Amino acid sequence: MTGISVTLAQLKPKLGCVAENLVLIEERIKKAAADKVDLIVFPELAVTGYFLKDLVPEVALRIDSSEITHLKELSRQISIAIGLVEVTDDYRFYNTALYLEDGEIRHLHRKVYLPTYGLFDEQRYLARGERFRAFDTKFGRMGLLICEDMWHLSSSYILAMDGASILICLSSSPGRGIEGEILGSARAWQQLTSTTAMFLNCRVLYCNRVGYEDGVNFWGGSEYIAPSGESVIRGKILEEDSVRATLDEGALRRERIFFPMLRDENLFVTMQELRRIESKRGQ
Amino acid sequence: MGGLSANTDLLRKILVGFVKDEVHKVGVQKAVLGLSGGIDSALVVFIAAEALGPENVHAICMPYKSSNPESETHARLVAQACGVNFSVVPITPMVDSYFDMFPEANNMRRGNKMARERMTILFDHSALLSALVLGTSNKTELLLGYGTLYGDMASALNPIGDLYKSQVWQLSEAMGVPKEVIEKNPSADLWAGQTDEEELGFSYRQVDELLYRMVDQRKITEELLAEGLEVDFVDDIYKKVQNSHFKRRLPVIAKVSNRTIDRDFRYSRDWGK
Fold first, then answer.
1. PROSITE patterns annotated for this entry (chain A) (predicted)?
2. Sign of the Cα pseudo-torsion (A260, A263, A269, A274, in order)
3. ipTM, 2 decimals?
4. How far is A186 from chain B (nearest CA, A)?
C-alpha cells in the first residue's frame, strides 16, 4: 500500500450545540472528501464541546440516531473518526469515538480513563468504557484512544499488541503552563505521542481541538508522528486548522526492520508478570 | 528563575484569544473597562485593543477628588498608546452626597463605596455600549482578597485573574505598556499617598514567590520554611487567602430542592456558546 492521506480537523465546537457542530463537521468532511483525503479525524467530543457537565444527557446520541446515521452515510465518501457523547439503552452516557467507513461503524471506543482531578470532572457525568480493541480498516489495523486514555501506557500497548499500526488519539486538551518555551500541556503531549510512536513502532495521529470554554483554552497542535517518533507535521497552536498528513507505509516498514522492538516484545513474560501482580493484589 | 517567569509571547496569544473568543461568542463586539492609571487596567486595555480592535474598546477613568492627578494623566497616556476610546466620569458628586449622610465613615468604607460606584458606571456603560465589562484584578489581589467585592472584583471577563503581579509586570513590558505606568509604585489610589505594598506590609515580589509555591505548587509549610520563608509570613498569607475566600465565591444558597444552582445544577457559563 502506498501513502494514506489523512486530515486532522482541528476545529472549535460550540458548547452543547449538536446541530451547529454537525454542520461544521459536515463542511470539513465534504471539503476533505473533495480533496481526495482517505481519512478525516475529529477531536474528542467534536459533536458536543467539552465542559458539558449537566448537559451530557441533553447532547447524547443513540447509535441508531439520525445524526449518526447521517455521519455513516458520509463515510461512503471518506473514512471518519469522530468524538461524541453516546447514550445506551440502559441510559449510560459515554465519551465515545466512532470509526466510520463505507457507511458502517467499523469500531466504537468508549473512553476508559475518565480524568476526574484538577480541572477535570468526567467521571461525575460519564460512564467508563471497559475495553481497548484494535480493528481492521481498509487502510490497515488501527486503534482508537480518547485523550486521557493515552496517558496510560497500557492502553497504547494493548492496541499495539492487538496489531494496530496506526493509533488515533482524539483529544480535548486544555492548555496550561506558561513558563516554558512552549505551552506546558503541548510539551507534555508532544513527548507522550512521540515516545509512544517510538516505543511501539506505530504511527500516531493526534487531533486536538481549539477554542475557549469558560476561560479554558484548548491548544490544538494536532499532529502526525511517524514510527520513528518524529513529528512529521503539526497544526497551529490555539487556532483552527486543517492538518494534512500522508502516512508513508515505507516509513513503517523501514522502522520495523531497523528497530524490531515490537517483534521482540515478549507478551508471555508480560502476561505472566501482570498475572502475578494481579493475584498478589487480590490477596 | 522559578515558575513566575512567563513566556510572554504565549501568554499574550492565550489572553488576546480569550478576550476575542469570549466576547464575540456572546454576540458582542465591544468591551468596556475602568482605566485607573495603574498597571493592571493598562495591561487589560492593551490586551483588549489587540483582541477586539481599539475602536471597540471603551476605557473610562473615574477619579475621585482625592485621587492623585497623575492617575488620570497616566490613564490618558495608556488610552492614547493603544488607541482606545477614552472618557472621564468623576465619581465625586455621587460618593460625596452619600457620605454627607454618613460623615463618620472611615477610609475602608469610603474606598469600598468608590470601587462600587465605579462598578455601577461600568455596568451602565455595558448596557449603553453593548459591551462586556472586563475585570482587571490579578491573581495576587484575588488570592489575598485585596479588592472590593462587587466593586473592582466585579466583571464579565477577567483576562489577568490567573496572572500574579510579577507576571503582570512582565507581560506589560512585552506588550508596550508605557514605562511610567510599569515603573510606578502600585496604589489603589483611594487616598493621597497610599501604596499597596505599604498597606499590605510586604512587597508583591515577596508575596508572589510565596503564593506561587503555596497555591500553584501546593508546597506544605515545612517545605516553604526549608526554602527560607518566614513562618509568620507563611501563616499570615495562608490566613489571608482563607479569610478572603468568600470574595471568590458566589453567594451561598440554602439548599432545599434536588437541584440547587451551582451545587447540583451545573452548567458552564459558555452553555450554548
1. CN_HYDROLASE (PS50263)
2. positive
3. 0.94
4. 12
